[in-house]
Amino acid sequence: MLSERVIAEELLCRLCNDNSERVEEAGEAAVQVLGARLCLWDGVLESIRHGDREESGSPPV
After folding, report:
1. What pLDDT, on a 0 to 100 scale, did the predictor assign at position 1?
2. What's the rounded Cα separation, in Å, for the pair 31 and 37?
């Protein structure tokens, strides 16, 4: 069975067509996406810690 890493590398090679400029752009995009995910989950954690609720009155998750 192939690992996720191997599958991801194969996908990257196919999408970038061995073009080093595209590989570089994909790497930069990955870094941006990971930063955005960190911000998202930091915000979720902050909401949980402070017991923030939506205006609908839903209990915190």
Report:
1. 72
2. 10
Helix axes 20-50, 4-16, angle to 10 degrees: 130
pLDDT at 18 over 90: no
CB 16 within 8 A of CB 22: yes
Tokens at residue 22, please? 């595209």
Q: Count CB atoms within 10 A of the CB of residue 56.
A: 5
Report DSSP letters for 16-52, one per residue: HTT-HHHHHHHHHHHHHHHHHHHHHHHHHHHHHHHT-
Element (H, E) at 5: helix 4-16
User: 20-61, pLDDT tens digit by residue?
Assistant: 999 999 999 999 999 999 999 999 999 999 986 655 556 655
